[in-house]
Design brief:
The chain has 430 residues and is of the alpha+beta class. The structure holds ligand EPZ.
Length: 430
């Protein structure tokens, strides 16, 4: 077992490079299954979720090799239709994209019900399945697996009554080779939707409107391999932006698309931080204690829910009362229990957290409840007086490449430390 040990209360100063976007990569990698060809994908982050996805593709017959740490060659020429291994997919939320990709390629897919971040509530996939059905697929379940089958996929008009990143992506994957035209209305507009559309179009797909509420897909018969570079990770960048402001530091965050960071920059400025944008970098600094503001998470271009826990840590240190509302997920405040152990004053009222800013946090033993909750604990530890120990960091490794190295290079004192699994110790003694 591993944990992070952080000695906090010092500013982050220097430069940080951002890796490729996890949530774009988890869609683009399965999209390679839509052609039997060779792909060279750059800016692939070296994180657990992506390595799990590559392992799944390999188990399906794809040949994976690396030109360097972030450039992956994927040869899908020997992939065969069939069941995707249950053990490999059950813990990866984004494994549901294998459903869309396999259905799009072979008219048939069998994949485990998705795992991934558990915020304490339900994470349904009814909209994905509704989209597949509209394209002509029959859906059933079999021993924890979802089975989707079609004689022929036919383009259709699909209206999502809720904006869903996953459902938008899954229908795009399934529809690129369907006969006729598919129209997705009330589509998600996140940067990774646009990135996937750009990738699919480079493969020969005909997708228009990605990044708007209406996406039009004209089905094509064949797709082919391509070379592609994944966009930088909006949420990794946002996490370090907030860390800079919360520690009263000064960070130049490189390899970003500043436009993707607009909702985060706007809120940091509202709190009193300085945010300067350059072509492909962004600088965030704060000279002293900031003031609170209200946050409401919304689908893109609103404030991202995946930045909500990290921003709440900042607000817990700001002057005044802030109200944080998560309108995307029903129950994404589980981490608040951990934060209150460090002295944060936060009350949960339904879908909102009422944050009473205080001048300081105190180091404590805490855990990462999920990926972004873990990132929030790191920021809290960096700001807190004393030592913070974060357990369950396996969640953080799912989405942040080289987090210890990147933070150490800008002045943080953070280490990854091995410790015995308490359950094993008890078992040995018994
Ligand atoms: C993606 O999850 C991201 N994951 C999440 O990031 C992110 O929090 C979320 O989008 C929202 O931005 C990946 O890209 C792998 P949704 P996804 O479908 O696609 C409801 C992270 O930290 N809904 O947009 O699963 C759902 O309950 C992760 O990197 C349905 O009702 O999210 C939620 O309230 C965590 N039915 C809302 O829509 C469905 O069929 C948005 O979910 C699907 C979703």
């Amino acid at each position: 077992m591993e944990k992070f040990v952080i000695k906090g209360n010092r500013p982050l100063i220097g430069e940080i490079d951002i890796s490729g976007a996890k949530n774009a990569a988890v869609a683009i990698l399965p999209a390679t299954l839509l052609a039997k060809d060779v792909f060279l994908i750059e800016n692939v982050p070296d994180i657990r979720d992506i390595n799990s996805m590559l392992q799944i593709l390999e188990s399906m017959g794809a040949q994976i090799s690396y030109a360097n740490r972030s450039t992956v060659k994927i040869d899908t020429r020997h992939v065969q239709p069939g069941t995707v291994d249950y053990e490999l997919t059950k813990n990866l939320r984004a494994s549901y994209y294998l459903l869309g990709a396999m259905l799009g390629m072979y008219n048939s897919a069998k994949v485990a019900m998705p795992g991934g971040c558990n915020f304490g509530g339900v994470r349904p996939i009814d909209l994905h399945l509704k989209g597949f059905s509209a394209l002509g697929a029959m859906i059933s379940t079999d021993g924890g697996m979802i089975v989707a089958k079609a004689n022929k996929l036919l383009g259709a008009s699909i209206y999502f009554d809720k904006v869903s990143v996953g459902a938008t992506i899954n229908v795009m994957l399934a529809a690129v080779k369907a006969r006729g035209i598919t129209i997705i209305e009330n589509a998600a507009r996140e940067p990774h939707i646009v990135d996937l559309a750009n990738f699919l179009n480079l493969m020969g797909a005909r997708i228009k409107g990605a990044g708007t509420e209406v996406i039009k897909i004209e089905g094509v018969g064949e797709l082919h391999g391509c070379n592609y570079s994944i966009i930088p990770d909006q949420i990794e960048a946002g996490t370090y932006m907030v860390a800079a402001a919360a520690t009263c530091g000064d960070l130049l965050i490189k390899n970003v698309i500043p436009k993707h960071l607009d909702p985060i920059s706007a809120k940091l400025r509202e709190c009193g931080a300085t945010v300067e944008e350059f072509d492909d970098s962004i600088r965030v600094s704060a000279g002293g204690r900031l003031h609170g503001c209200n946050i409401k998470t919304m689908p893109h271009p609103g404030f991202p829910t995946d930045m909500q826990p990290q921003f709440t840590v900042l607000l817990s240190l700001c002057e005044g009362i802030s109200i944080v509302t998560d309108s995307v997920w029903d129950n994404r405040f589980r981490y608040v229990d951990q934060l209150t152990r460090m002295g944060a004053q936060i009350q949960i009222e339904g879908k909102a957290a009422i944050v009473q800013g205080s001048a300081a946090l105190k180091g404590a033993p805490v855990k990462a409840d999920d990926l972004r909750a873990g990132a929030a604990m790191i920021i809290a530890g960096l700001c807190a007086k004393g030592t913070t120990e974060i357990e369950d960091i396996i969640h953080i490794d799912r989405g942040y490449e080289d987090v210890v190295k990147k933070l150490t290079a800008v002045g943080a004192t953070i280490a990854r430390v091995n410790f015995p699994d308490p359950q094993n110790v008890v078992a040995k003694r018994a």
